[in-house]
Write a structure and sequence with these properties.
The chain is an alpha/beta fold and 517 residues long. The strands form three sheets. It has a nine-stranded mixed beta sheet, with helices on both faces. A five-stranded parallel beta sheet has the order 12-11-10-13-14, sandwiched between helices. The radius of gyration is 27 Å and the shape is globular. About 2% of the residues have low confidence. Bound molecules: xanthosine-5'-monophosphate. The site of xanthosine-5'-monophosphate has 13 residues, from loops.
């Protein structure tokens, strides 16, 4: 394991991503962690960047025990400055802030840059820089403005670099991280999803024990499906998946998901059809946050009722008790909760339905909590889940209720579903589904005038949304070829009754959001 200590840089999670991509297992912890509290002995430690300056009074510093741990250390950006600050170098604000691409020169002989050319393009983002290296440290890379872009002390295996190898703007960044993690630390590159799945199944069997039962909600999305699949492989029918039909899923979605999970993947699944309950409660409601609350609360209610039914059945059959709740938490959420919060920490809103645990007194089981999204996809693939499901766009919990502006009636649901279905079908036909991060049709609560044959129409508007994004925090609208938009528009207007106008949403996030509500 490589340990990454986070000082609050916006790029820290990318260090973890890049190292995992090398097949090396790594974990991220806050920089303030006590070395004595570590549950594992790392093969090496990476110190991340930070929005702080090492000389700020409240700037974060590592536990001094790190320096005597006896494993290689790589400092990145602030991490380099932390090394210098500790070891007696000099860090100063530079009059010219280095931000963006920079060309650096490497002095031959450094193991960190082994096998790389002597001049590299890298990504910089820092105000402070090293003006004097600590004693015994060799400068191994420099730029026109900085003599200490990289330094090292081979005897102590301490390395520092001013630039960010973890971002894609540093083309040889992965090679540098490989040189560190595998070459210098000697970490094993044996982290694969194939090895993960066997170990995780074993772990779940141990945690759950021989008789306890587990319940969990599935939606047809990749995370919940992969999590359910692992549970099902680990404990078979002692895992009970619950799919709640809230009446605002996409066209035929519940049936398709049920079919796939039950028949194709062999998961023990119960479909709770509560569409009438949800639509009844949504009647007359137009406020987006109210819609979310109604759907969220009703979901918990239906899920708990279904869980209680399963529990009664299980007990009657004398098969043990439901003791665990499966959750599809991923590593980015874990990182979000454990990383060091600097002053510029991003504030992320969590949309997922919570609150289940307090009521049900269940223990949580989270098979995906160590994984990034692409690792979950790879895992799903290994377990035989279809590409179609693995690459499905994310779909919000409140479903198309927040894509129908105004009141959500069964008629509006039918229109929105039909238009959305055509839209997604055409996107898939054009081979663009995987290029787009998220796409959907929104139904607007306005009517506009049109003409059909020689009749005047007065009907509703569909707004098409398609965005490209990496993290869903910022997004660009997708540039469709016009002929595809043309085909989508004419199909929707011709085939969907009640719609006479289609518009395409050309707003990026921010300031717009991805959803219309
Ligand atoms: P926004 O609209 O905030 O969406 O740009 C960002 C991402 O979050 C999804 N989203 C939700 N997901 N419950 C969810 O489970 C919600 O209430 C919710 N609102 C937005 C949205 O689909 C996009 O992927």
């Amino acid at each position: 394991t490589i340990l990454i200590l986070d000082f609050g840089s916006q790029y820290t999670h990318l260090i973890a991503r890049r190292i995992r991509e090398l097949g090396v297992y790594c974990e991220l912890l806050a920089c303030t962690v006590k070395i004595a509290d570590l549950k594992f002995k790392p093969k090496g430690v990476v110190l991340s960047g930070s929005p702080y300056s090492v000389y700020d009074v409240d700037s974060p510093h590592v536990d001094p025990a790190l320096w005597t741990l006896g494993v290689p250390i790589l400092g990145i950006c602030y991490g380099l400055q932390e090394i210098a600050w500790t070891k007696g170098g000099k860090v100063e604000p530079h009059d010219k802030r280095e931000y963006g691409k920079a060309d650096i020169q490497i002095r031959p002989g450094s193991r960190l840059f082994a096998g790389l050319p002597n001049d590299l393009t890298v990504w910089m983002s820092h105000g402070d820089q090293l003006s004097q290296a600590p004693e015994g440290f060799k400068p191994v890379a420099y730029t026109a403005t900085s003599p200490y872009t990289a330094i090292e002390k081979e005897e102590e295996q301490i390395y520092g670099i001013q630039f960010h190898p973890e971002v894609t703007h540093t083309p040889k960044g992965s090679a540098i991280l490989r040189n560190f993690a595998i070459g210098i630390c000697g970490a094993n590159a044996n982290w694969t999803m194939a090895s993960f799945v066997d170990k995780e199944i074993e772990r779940i069997r141990n945690v759950v024990g021989p008789t306890a039962q587990v319940i969990g909600a599935v939606s047809g999305g990749v995370d919940s499906t992969v999590a359910a699949m692992i549970m099902s492989k680990a404990i078979g029918d002692r895992f009970h998946a619950i799919l709640v039909d809230n009446g605002v899923m996409r066209l035929n979605e519940c049936q398709t998901v049920q079919q796939t999970l039950q028949k194709h993947l062999g998961i023990n699944l119960t479909l709770a059809d509560a569409s009438e309950l949800f639509l009844g409660r949504l009647k007359g409601v137009t406020d987006p946050e109210k819609k979310r609350k109604i759907i969220g609360n009703s979901f918990i209610e239906v899920f708990e009722a279904e869980g209680a039914k399963i529990e009664a059945q299980v007990e009657q059959e004398g098969k043990g008790k439901i003791e665990f709740l499966l959750q599809g938490t991923l590593y980015p959420d874990v990182i979000e909760s454990i990383s060091f919060k600097g002053p510029s920490a991003t504030i992320k809103t969590h949309h997922n339905v919570g609150g289940l645990l307090d009521d049900m007194k269940l223990k949580v089981i989270e098979p995906l909590r160590e994984l990034f999204k692409d690792e979950v996809r790879a895992l799903g693939s290994i377990m035989g889940i279809d590409d179609e499901l693995i690459w499905r766009h994310p779909f919000p919990g409140p479903g198309i209720a927040i894509r129908i502006l105004g009141e959500v009636t069964p008629e509006q649901v039918a229109i929105a579903r039909h238009a959305d279905h055509i839209y997604i079908e055409e996107i898939k036909k054009a081979g663009l589904y995987r290029k787009i991060s998220q796409a959907y049709a929104a139904l607007l609560p306005v009517r506009s005038v049109g003409v059909m044959g020689d009749k005047r129409t007065y009907e509703q508007v569909i707004a098409l949304r398609a965005v490209e994004t990496k993290d869903f925090m910022t997004a660009d609208w997708f540039e469709f070829p016009y002929d595809i938009l043309k085909r989508i528009s004419s199909r929707i207007i011709n085939e969907v009754q009640g719609v006479n106008r289609v518009v395409y949403d050309v707003s990026s996030k921010p300031p717009a959001t991805i959803e219309w509500e």
